[in-house]
Amino acid sequence: MRLAVLFFIVSGVLIAGCQHTKEGTFAIDQISISDEGLTNGQNYYVVAPLQWDGPARAELTNIGIVNEAGEPINASEGIEASFYVGADTKQTGVFRREEIGEKQQVEGYELTEEQTLIMQVKVTNTTEGENRKLSLTYSSGGEEYEKLLEWEPISDLNSSAMMNSLPPST
């Protein structure tokens, strides 16, 4: 009898210890934007690997740029940004062009271990803002979560009259 009780106690501890939390973690590669900044009004794509470690059934609901108070940054502050997700095989970097190829909407995207984050961005009279963060909102198990990540392309966003480091699209 004691052996059976001990078995159930040990089994319960092992099962509880093996259950994963519904929260996960993101990792994103740092991509550097030129010191000269981005040309005012020009369309750019910043593409970086995005890794997910968490529940298998997790969906993105939103990605955006926020300030240190957690408030969204938008066009009134000189930054127009839209976010998409792409295949993990997509070429990464900063590209000055009007189209980036195949991409998926963020809302409802089911996270996998590896994918790429695609930021389409246009800046107007913008200076670097080290307090900007990337906000990723996702749902898992009926709960919604937000993760804030420091990402160099967001804090380095600034505009200039000329951008010499990126070749024009072909």
TrEMBL record:
Protein name, entry field: Uncharacterized protein
